[in-house]
Amino acid sequence: MITATIVDDEPDCCESLAVLLERYCPEVKVLDICHSGEAALQSVKEQHPQILFLDIEMPFMNGFELLEKLGNIDFELIFTTSYDQYAIKAFRFSALDYLLKPVDREELQKAVQKAVQRKMHPLPQQLEMLLQKYKHPAIPVNKIAIPTMEGFQLLAADAIISCESDNNYTCLFLKDKRKIVASRTLKEMEEILEDYPFVRVHHSHIVNLNEVEKYIKGEGGYVIMSNGATINVSRSRKELLLRTFR
């Protein structure tokens, strides 16, 4: 049995999430439901839940302030939030789990399953990255969090030469000749990297423009990267690529 606490200032959202957990995630036992950060602070310290479902936007003490006051994060975090493009981008950037309200049953089950399987708790760096990206969406953060089968890899965006789709995963080819397999789709990687000089040149490839050494003409053509890799450019994306070099 996995224990959990729900923190949200909206009673209806709390009740709905609790019902979904009871029906579709029977392995989760809800220890407490808190409608304020202050109540959650006391509850979490006393009951030590293994998963915290946490709303960010709450009056008096928001989710981030609660985490700061708790200090030691010895539980899995699953944020709950209303749709906000900057918030969603921040979560993807930091590779921390989130659920959009109203919470979808299948997404909840996936999030709980990942939390149960995870062997490492959210890193302080990930929370810091989330906070920076959430509060200052226009300011690029030096590193991004890449979820992998082993945990998370923190790396600088400019260390990536190119990204290649592998179904629901993405292979990242790095300057130091390493290859990292990220538990993210290529579309998600494209959104994470949009503040950096990366362009999707093919339905299966994203390239770092600073690492393109040559473009060879053709129907779509292809690029030669700094590591010697040859990557095809689709006809539909050829003009976009060429415009970036003009």
TrEMBL record:
PROSITE patterns xrefs: HTH_LYTTR, RESPONSE_REGULATORY
GO molecular function: DNA binding; phosphorelay response regulator activity
Modification type 4-aspartylphosphate: residues: 55
Family annotation (InterPro entries): CheY-like_superfamily (IPR011006), LytR-like (IPR046947), LytTR_DNA-bd_dom (IPR007492), Sig_transdc_resp-reg_receiver (IPR001789)
Limits of the HTH LytTR-type domain: 144-246
Keyword field: Phosphoprotein
Residues of the Response regulatory domain: 3-116
Pfam families, per the entry: LytTR, Response_reg
Protein name: Putative two-component response regulator
Phylogenetic placement of the source organism: Bacteria, Pseudomonadati, Bacteroidota, Chitinophagia, Chitinophagales
